[in-house]
Automatic annotation (TrEMBL), chain A:
This is Peroxiredoxin family protein. Transmembrane segments: none annotated. It comes from the Bacteria. InterPro entries: DsrE2-like, DsrEFH-like. Gene3D superfamilies: DsrEFH-like (3.40.1260.10). Pfam families: DrsE_2 (PF13686).
From TrEMBL, chain B:
This is TusA-related sulfurtransferase. PROSITE patterns: UPF0033. Signal peptide: none annotated. GO terms for molecular function: transferase activity. Residues 7-31 form the UPF0033 domain. It comes from Paranoxybacillus vitaminiphilus. It comes from the Bacteria. Keywords: Transferase. Coiled coil: none annotated. Belongs to the sulfur carrier protein TusA family.
Amino acid sequence: MAKKVAIIAANGGLFDAYKVFNIATAAAATEAEVAIFFTFEGLNLIHKEAYKNLPLPEGKEHFQEGFQKANVPAIPELVEMAKEMGVKMIACQMTMDVMGLEKEHFVDGIDVGGAVTFLDFAKDADVTLTF
Amino acid sequence: MQSDKVLDAKGLACPMPIVRTKKAMDELASGQVLEIHVTDKGAKNDLAAWVKSAGHEMIQSAEEGNVLKFWIRKG
């Protein structure tokens, strides 16, 4: 049976996005079944507008250049790839309500669910990560 | 070293070499050999680990300047 990788994305910066999507796509490329639960600021990572321009941590803006030099793929590209590889993305309903967000504010192909949706997937996951 | 397909992943950063390798591998039949060229130094350990968990076999690797080359037989 395929390995299962369950990821919680709770932060919304550019560094956070790379941590989440690099691990997710690498896991999917290694035949794992992957689900990411986006909650609180983590929702930025799949927000149609916000994910195009995620902030670097304060004082670390100079890393922008490093990202370009290292030829690291842009976040929308990684999200597209993750989707293509079957990574399941779940936006947290409760935090969407708190932040006044609707499903159409997010990239296509995501699911909206509650904590139990994620827990049901994560209960027999081989790897569980929180970013 | 004979290969059935060559993947040029030079200039790509993690996780792209692995993602591209997986996609290229999907197009091969069991027993066929994929040749991969990368410049990402992290790919050396990554590909070795990927081969192991995906059930393939690393037949050979080589270093030519800053280009790393790998030959993987599909399991």
